[in-house]
Design a protein that fits this description.
Layout lengths: L2 E10 L6 H12 L11 E9 L3 H16 L5 E10 L9
Antiparallel strand pairs: 1-2, 1-3
Length: 93
């Protein structure tokens, strides 16, 4: 059965305050890194999944993202999906 590599990027919705991002932005200035006007913290989730085809894999990862990986009230998510070659890692450059 084909294997797929999925990367789900989860981030706070723009309307949601991000105290961790703001604290990191402020710390960057204290480190001498100027010009950072906005910084948001999110998370990246990577998984490998077996499925009959890319559409099935995408549907399964969408279900995981909607119900488990992200809080739909305060977070958005986006997905990257690639088929893993029979003898490879599936991670795109």
């Amino acid at each position: 059965m084909p294997r797929f590599h999925a990367r789900v990027l989860v981030s706070l919705r723009p309307s949601v305050l991000d105290p961790a991002g703001e604290a990191t932005r402020a710390a960057s200035s204290r480190l001498g890194v100027e010009g950072v006007n906005r910084l948001r913290i999110g998370k990246a989730v990577e998984l490998e999944i077996e499925a009959a085809d890319a559409d099935t894999a995408r549907s399964r990862v969408e279900l995981l993202s909607d119900r488990l990986l992200a809080n739909p009230v305060i977070e958005n998510w986006e997905m990257e999906l690639s088929e893993i070659p029979a003898n490879g890692t599936g991670q795109s450059a």
